[in-house]
Write a structure and sequence with these properties.
alpha/beta; 3-stranded parallel sheet; two-stranded antiparallel ribbon; 12% strand; PGM_Phosphatase
Length: 185
């Protein structure tokens, strides 16, 4: 449970992300801006890539990973051994249960949606069409869940493979942010 811990990206993680980006660049995918979580496991890679591609880089604190409170930095196996029922409830019903002193799923969703509202406005102001968003697994799972119109309790079954690019379309209807999956990046 890394949550808001500001860990560095591992060498393997860096290589995974670099490989994924290189594949998309080879396919002539172009972005107008790179937007990243400020946590260094996202931000350092995003900064290096923005410099390499000569793109603007924006940091958005609202797209950080979920805050896991007392579980921050604790292996799920350890939590399972000490609080199996609480962990099981969190995995099965994340809308009803959260880590002790951590962020609820509702709080997390509201924060992330606020961040994407900011991103939407920035993209409109600058006439940017495509952004590479460098963020965390929980954020990706949430956005995928929303794009697929799944129940939020299905959040933890959504895909979020490390070092993978997910393509989502961001729109605003009646001042509400909406997400949909794109088949092509």
């Amino acid at each position: 449970m890394r949550g808001h811990l500001d860990d560095a990206l591992t060498e393997q993680g860096w290589l995974q992300m670099q490989s994924t980006v290189e594949q998309h660049l080879a396919a002539q995918v172009q972005w107008d801006v790179i937007i990243s979580s400020p946590l260094q496991r996202c931000q350092k890679f995003a900064a290096a890539l923005a410099k390499q591609l000569e793109l603007p880089l924006l940091l958005n604190a609202e797209i950080k990973e979920m805050y896991f409170g007392d579980w921050e930095g604790i292996a799920t196996q350890t939590i399972y051994e000490t609080e199996p029922e609480r962990l099981a409830n969190f995995w099965q019903f994340p809308t009803q249960y959260h880590a002790p002193n951590g962020e609820s799923l509702n709080q997390f969703q509201q924060r992330v949606l606020h961040g994407f509202n900011e991103i939407y406005v920035q993209m409109q102001q600058h006439n940017w069409n495509k952004a590479l968003i460098v963020t965390h697994g929980g954020v990706i799972k949430l956005l995928t869940c929303l794009a697929r119109h799944q129940k939020l309790d299905d959040l933890l079954t959504m895909p979020a493979e490390l070092g993978t690019l997910y393509a989502l379309k961001l729109t605003q209807i009646d001042n509400q942010i909406h997400f949909s999956e794109k088949t092509k990046i």
